[in-house]
């Protein structure tokens, strides 16, 4: 054998009781699980003592924004050090494939706040398959990909707020089908982000029919997480029921003051649908604040036509005043139908270094320092940062976070944005925070249950036949951690601090983290769905 981890506490990903065993790896697979008293113990060229540690399957980040970070940062300790062995990219309806030259330029600008402008990346792909081929050259952790519906609409329709023509809808169907044939696991949407939010349910349903034909799943960031959130969740349940498509709800939170205590209402809605036969799962991060871009707070009509049109409206005093009215008084669809609270909007990063003094302060604080109204400050940031500023939005509720993470269809997703001077700590801390804070310290879930939420359940959603469990013959994507000390190092004050208590991480049996330090191993590759529609 290549490696044996001796006498470790095996938390196998099923949610069942842990047990003691030696676990041997060979040729990238789990070769033997040997319990005490079962005969000769396995031997190997290398041995690790797991006496005081727990061994689990590698963690699967069901909602990641590492689309370019995996290419620019071979180290990628933000995820590798957490024990993440697989990330799902292409989230919130916006990513970098499929594209043509025009669409690529537009999407790079529109999500620069998430991933940087890409000036350091060689965009030598246009299709989903070519992007996955690029990942296969070697990355820090494995990655699966969702076809981004907003990018697809940008490609086929543009930035107009209108119905797609029959020809445009056919074009979008082809793009989605091609992406699925090339290895994507499903389709995502960002229905509070332009231009994906301009798609009506009938259009989304037709695209979901294509996803269903390939046995993929639909992962929407739905139309509201604030006012009308329950109706927005219900809309997605009904849409996928009509399309016959599996549904995975992205960062399924219940935020803003209007939803305090309503996590249980969301779960009741989902339980009813599941009892009626719906195939539903969801992911969350174990924190109350959210994170996105400042421009995302604007009403959808302000973003129609793309970034240049948005900037032109912001420069025009009359249009800017109309935007302010929608954001501050009416409640824009970009801010989930809730009037914005500037004292809860913290600037987490800017692409323009000259604006660095705004980072770490709320818009209200920066406005007070300058003796101006918050909208004047926000408008300046949007214009001078070319829409690239990122924010933390402090609008969540702890009781909702805990209620939702207990649900049987729950999985873990960091929603980690790695850009910015002061990113959300979830990017560096989600998985150890689940294990340490919520499982060990608070007992919201048992450690065994928590591991199942982070491993086998997401693997089942992704339909991966050999990941997510500690089983003989399964891939040796494994995490060896200390249940007594594992914890997120990242905080809102120091968000890039790495976790503690995770000394070893393996991908295909290769050490990615060794004695708590990142190795130079690039064992990650694309993880692709089986080609061909399920009906064939």
TrEMBL record:
Q: Domain Amidohydrolase spans what residues?
A: 48-513
Enzyme Commission number, as recorded: 3.5.1.-
InterPro entries attached to this UniProt entry: Amidohydro_3, Metal-dep_hydrolase_composite, Metal_Hydrolase, Metallo-dep_Hydrolases_sf
Pfam families for the chain: Amidohydro_3
User: Where is it found, in Gene Ontology cellular component terms?
Assistant: cytosol
The answer to whether the entry has keyword Hydrolase is yes
Instruction: Say if the entry is tagged with keyword Hydrolase.
Output: yes
Q: Which UniProt keywords apply?
A: Hydrolase
Looking up SUPFAM superfamilies in the UniProt record yields: Composite domain of metallo-dependent hydrolases, Metallo-dependent hydrolases
Q: Which GO terms describe its molecular function?
A: hydrolase activity, acting on carbon-nitrogen (but not peptide) bonds, in cyclic amides
Top-rank taxon: Bacteria
Q: Which residues form a coiled coil?
A: none
Recorded protein name is D-aminoacylase
Q: Which organism is it from?
A: Streptomyces tabacisoli
């Amino acid at each position: 054998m290549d490696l044996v981890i001796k006498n470790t506490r095996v938390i196998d990903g099923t949610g069942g009781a842990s047990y003691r065993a030696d676990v041997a790896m060979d040729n990238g697979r789990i070769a033997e699980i040997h319990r005490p008293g079962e005969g000769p113990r396995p031997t190997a060229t290398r041995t690790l003592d797991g006496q005081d540690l727990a061994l689990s399957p590698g963690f699967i980040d069901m909602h990641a924004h590492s689309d370019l970070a995996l290419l620019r940062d071979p180290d990628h300790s933000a995820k590798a050090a957490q024990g993440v062995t697989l990330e799902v990219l292409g989230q919130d309806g916006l990513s970098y494939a499929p594209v043509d030259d025009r669409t690529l330029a537009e999407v790079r600008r529109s999500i620069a706040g998430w991933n940087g402008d890409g000036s350091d990346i060689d965009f030598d792909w246009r299709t989903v398959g070519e992007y996955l081929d690029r990942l296969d050259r070697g990355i820090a952790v494995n990655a699966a990909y969702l076809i981004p519906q907003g990018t697809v609409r940008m490609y086929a329709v543009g930035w107009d707020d209108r119905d797609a023509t029959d020809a445009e809808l056919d074009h979008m169907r082809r793009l989605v089908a091609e992406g699925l044939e090339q290895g994507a696991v499903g389709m995502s949407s960002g229905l509070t982000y332009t231009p994906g939010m301009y798609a009506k349910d009938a259009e989304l349903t037709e695209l979901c029919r294509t996803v269903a034909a390939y046995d993929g799943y639909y992962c929407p960031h739905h139309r509201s997480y604030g006012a009308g959130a329950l109706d927005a969740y219900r809309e997605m349940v009904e849409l996928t029921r009509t399309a016959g498509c599996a549904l995975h709800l992205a960062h399924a939170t219940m935020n803003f003051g209007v939803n305090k205590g309503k996590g249980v209402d969301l779960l009741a809605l989902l339980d009813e649908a599941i009892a009626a036969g719906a195939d539903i799962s969801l992911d969350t991060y174990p924190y109350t604040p959210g994170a996105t871009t400042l421009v995302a707070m604007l009403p959808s009509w302000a973003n129609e036509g793309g970034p240049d049109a948005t900037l032109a409206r912001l420069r025009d005093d009359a249009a800017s005043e109309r935007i302010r009215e929608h954001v501050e008084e009416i409640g824009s669809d970009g801010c989930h139908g809730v009037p914005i609270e500037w004292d809860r909007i913290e600037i987490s990063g800017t692409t323009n270094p000259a604006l660095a003094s705004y980072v770490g302060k709320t818009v209200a604080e920066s406005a007070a320092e300058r003796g101006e109204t918050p909208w004047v400050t926000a408008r300046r940031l949007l214009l001078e940062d070319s829409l690239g500023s990122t924010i933390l939005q402090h609008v969540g509720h702890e009781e909702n976070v805990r209620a939702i993470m207990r649900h049987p269809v729950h999985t873990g997703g960091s929603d980690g944005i790695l850009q910015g001077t002061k990113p959300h700590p979830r990017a560096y801390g989600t998985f150890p925070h689940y294990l340490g804070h919520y499982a060990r310290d608070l007992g919201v879930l048992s450690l065994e249950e928590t591991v199942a939420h982070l491993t086998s359940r997401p693997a089942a959603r992704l339909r991966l036949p050999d990941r997510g469990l500690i089983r003989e013959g399964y891939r040796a994507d494994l995490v060896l951690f200390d249940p007594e000390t594992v914890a997120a190092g990242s905080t809102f004050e120091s968000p890039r601090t790495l976790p503690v208590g995770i000394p070893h991480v393996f991908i295909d049996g290769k050490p990615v983290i060794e004695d708590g330090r990142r190795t130079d191993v690039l064992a990650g590759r694309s993880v692709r769905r089986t080609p061909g529609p399920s009906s064939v």
